[in-house]
Amino acid sequence: MEHLNPHAPERYAAFVAAAGDAVLGLDFDGTLAPIVDDPTLARIHPDAAAAVLAVAGRLRAVAVVTGRPVAQALQLGALEELADALAEQGRELFVLGQYGNERWRSTRRSVVSPPTPPGVNAYSAALPDALRAAGAESAYVEDKGLAVAVHTRRLPDATAAYARLLPVLTELAAAHGLTVEPGRQVIEVRGGETHKGEAVHLIAAELGAQGFCFIGDDLGDVEAFRAVAALRDAGAAGLLVCSGSEEQPALRELADVLVPGPDGVVAFLHQLAADLGAPAH
Ligand SMILES: O=P(O)(O)OC[C@H]1O[C@H](O[C@H]2O[C@H](CO)[C@@H](O)[C@H](O)[C@H]2O)[C@H](O)[C@@H](O)[C@@H]1O
C-alpha cells in the first residue's frame, strides 16, 4: 500500500482504533471485481470474499456500494454466500445498488427499489439513433432498469468513441431530465440526485458508525469519498483507499492510500486484518 498524503498513516491508525464501530465500504467493479471487457462476465476476485471475512470480524459492518443493480451484484459477487459467512461472525452485509437507489441488507434479504424514473424509457427509445449519429451503433447498451449504460470498451477505438458520445448522451439525458454518470469506458444515464455519498451517510447514520473506510476506483466513487471526508471532518475516523488503475487516476487525488487494483485491495484487507489482530481466516 502506498500512502498518498502525509495524513495517511494517522488516518489508517485512527481507523484501526475505531474499527469495532466502523464500516468497510467497497465498490464492486474495479475494486472487488477485476475489470473485464464484457460487463456480464465480471466476477468477484477469487480471493476477495476470504479477505473481507478476514477483516470483518473486527468491524461493525461491511457495505458493497455499487452502480450495479443489487440483484446483479449479489449474483456476480456471490454476495449472499458472503452474507451467510458474515452472519456466522455476527456481522451484517449491506448492498447499496444503482448508486444508492436500491438497498439490500443481509438481515432482510429483499431489494428496496424505487420505480423507474420518468424519462428513462424515452431516453432508451432515442438511444439507437443517437449512437448511430455518433458512429457508435455497436456500443453495448446495458439496461439497468433504473438507468441505461452505454459501454465503449469493446468498440474499435474505445477512448475516441467515449469522447464523441459523452457530449451527445449528456445532451440527450438533459432533454429527458436525467443525470449522466461517467465511468470507466461507460456513460450511464439515470434519474434522481442519489449518489454513493448518500449511501455512505445512510449506513453511517443507521449504525452510528465512528469510522468509515471506503475503497473505490472510479468517478462514481467520488461522492462516497467526499462523504467519508465529511464524516472525518465531523470527528469520525475516515480512511480513503483508491483501487488504482491507469485508466482512471482521478480518485488518487482524494485518497489516502493507493493499492494496485483488486489484487491490491485483497492484499490491503489482509494487511488491515493483521493490524487489527483479527484471527487468521
Ligand atoms: O460502482 P461500480 O461497482 O464500480 O459499478 C460501475 C459500473 O461498473 C460496470 O462497468 C464497469 O465494469 C465492467 C466489467 O468489468 C467494464 O466492462 C466496464 O467498462 C466498466 O465501466 C457495470 O457494467 C455498470 O453497470 C456499473 O454501473
From TrEMBL:
Keywords: Hydrolase, Magnesium, Metal-binding. Pathway: Glycan biosynthesis; trehalose biosynthesis. One of its GO terms (molecular function) is trehalose-phosphatase activity. InterPro entries: HAD-like_sf (IPR036412), HAD_sf (IPR023214), OTSB-like (IPR044651), Trehalose_PPase (IPR003337). Pfam families: Trehalose_PPase. It comes from Nocardioides massiliensis. Belongs to the trehalose phosphatase family. Its EC number is 3.1.3.12. This is Trehalose 6-phosphate phosphatase. Its cofactor is Mg(2+). It catalyses: alpha,alpha-trehalose 6-phosphate + H2O = alpha,alpha-trehalose + phosphate. The keyword Cell inner membrane does not apply. Removes the phosphate from trehalose 6-phosphate to produce free trehalose.
